[in-house]
Amino acid sequence: MLVTFSLCMIVKNEEDTLDRCLDSVAEIMDEIIIVDTGSTDRTKEIARRYTDCVYDFEWIEDFAAARNYTFGLATQSYIFWLDADDVLEEPDQIKLMELKNALEPDIDTVSMEYHLAFDEFGNVTSKLRRNRLVKRENHFRWIGAVHEYLEVYGKAIHSDIAVTHRSVRHDSDRNLKIYENRLEKGETFSPRDIFYFANELKDHSQTERAIHYYEKFLDSGQGWVEDCYSACGRMADCYHMQGDQEKELEAVLRSFHYGKPRAEFCCRLGFYFLQNQNLETAIYWYTQATCDTDINSRWVLSNQAVYTWLPHLQLCVCYDRIGNYELAQFHNEKAAAFRPEDPRILYNRTYLAKRLSGEEAQIN
Predict the structure, then answer these.
(1) By CB neighbour count within 10 A (0-12 exposed, 13-18 middle, 19+ buried), where does 326 fall?
(2) Domain 266-364 class in CATH
(3) CB 110 within 8 A of CB 176
(4) Distances from the Cα of 203 to the Cαs of 189, 207, 208, 237, 247, in angstroms?
(5) May I ask the CATH class of domain 171-259?
(6) Residues 81-140: pLDDT tens digits?
(7) Is 267 exposed, middle or buried (0-12, 13-18, 19+ CB in 10 A)?
(8) Residue 158 burial (CB count, 10 A)
(9) 5, 113, 231, 359: least CB-packed within 10 angstroms?
């Protein structure tokens, strides 16, 4: 028996993106449920072109409550969720239809990649993994007023289907205001709330407060290990913004407490030693970065550059500075495999060819 899909969405003032989102998935869905949390534009009018299931939900500064309401309205065997500024590109539409036709009814949840940012060549630069399709009868619940997550269990598939984020605008103060209001009311924040509150503070350049809450989160000893890694990196960012290189280094090294060095921290260390003209140590850490290949299994936001071309390009620079042009060329070509049209890589290719032939040049 074929499974059926309900699309569940919460929206507010999404007239610029909603039709694009729904066009990308409407033919795959058996039911589309749109819950509006207070639009003042044409959002609901656009939604009704695709479905009669358009509902209102009074906004109470709680994303999980709104999403749980939408899930409660679904009637099909599986629930698929999107935000209005998400789309499925054509290859992923095909993959989702193939999944629908092949999905066994004993599967409880399907995770998918979430592509958040792209470089000038169209390569994904930032992504994470999220539970995106869940069995309705399990009554899975969303948790968290802000930066909510879907709590799931059971038999899972981790698919290569990607949801692509194509935002045209962003309410940059919304989440921070929700957290500040909750704090003013005297609410007790969970470790996860503390972590995401710190992220909002950092994103709004309130670095001192952000550092305070990152420390509070890490000191709790109750955070998810992936968030602990992230907190160390973001705290290092705060110290970098403050120009405190030594504290930045301490924050990077603190990440080692949670497991083996990851590529993003190895690249940070490589850059630290490169800046301080300690080229051999810089080479060591950039080389370590190239050995971290476990990126696709991670559920947190990841910078794809540090797992692909960046450490190789930096190794090219380091080896050039110590006069090892063969290895400089080797790593430049490794970087080129990911960014073949990057002008820096093209320049280095010409420069290193001259160096290896004995001609004088200056590296980029």
Answers:
(1) exposed
(2) mainly alpha
(3) no
(4) 19, 9, 12, 10, 19
(5) mainly alpha
(6) 999 999 999 999 999 999 999 999 999 999 999 999 999 999 999 999 999 999 999 999
(7) buried
(8) 15
(9) 359
